[in-house]
Amino acid sequence: MKTARVSFEGVAAYSQSRYHGTEKLEKENHSDYEKRTWRERVHVNSDGYILIPPTAFKNSLSEAAKYLSISIPGKGKSNYTKHFEAGIMVTEPVVLNTKKEDVAGEWLFVPSDGKRGGTTRVMKCFPVIPEGEWGGEIVYLILDDTITKKVFEQVVKESGRLIGIGRFRPRNNGYYGRFKVTKIEWS
Fold first, then answer.
1. Which domain holds residue 182?
2. What distance in Å separates the CA atoms of residue 10 and residue 180, rounded to the nearest whole number?
3. Is residue 119 part of a domain?
4. How far apart are CA 16 and CA 63, in angstroms?
């Protein structure tokens, strides 16, 4: 097993859209509910700091491997996709320096069902952390020896550039959640 400690910094704003299921108050309309609960869309730790779930980075990496479809030398048409999907783990979140109560909101007129092209729209607010104000270190556990350091480094860099994390990321036709790798340490 190899461990890669990847330092990164956000090169675009980052936004989350976690489902929270907070109950409406009696006689509360949609607008008042949204104003009261929009910050519940962030993931937080017990100290109230916003965190990025480990699955965000794992899924971004797996999607980048699939997108790039890099062939494994000497294995015919086989590529690294399944090795990245099953052979890498990220177990710890990245905790940001922003507290839930300090995050800014972005009001948007979006489909009420959350699906692009929806017929009815509503105003919703999403938490946004500006470009350059988020980053950290991700620890990737590489369990599959088929994945070389060179291939991992290529895929992790492209995951930040082409796939991204969070709401409205490049993989979902957006531009938030892009990050650049600044350092990789191996052990």
1. 2-25+42-101+129-186
2. 6
3. no
4. 18
Q: Give the largest CA-CA distance in the chain.
A: 66
- Would you say 146 and 54 are in contact if contact means Cβ atoms under 8 Å apart? no
Q: What is the pTM of this model?
A: 0.93
Total of domains in the chain: 1
Residue 71, beta-bridge partner list:
79
Q: What is the CATH number of the domain that holds 161?
A: 3.30.70
Question: Could you read off the pLDDT tens digit of each residue along the chain, which spans 187 residues?
Answer: 999 999 999 999 999 999 999 999 999 999 999 999 999 999 999 999 999 999 999 999 999 999 999 999 999 999 999 999 999 999 999 999 999 999 999 999 998 887 888 789 999 999 999 999 999 999 999 999 999 999 999 999 999 999 999 999 999 999 999 999 999 999 9
Query: 107-135: string of b/e by CB count within 10 Å (b at 16+)?
Result: eeebeeeeeeeeeeeeebbbbbbeeeebb
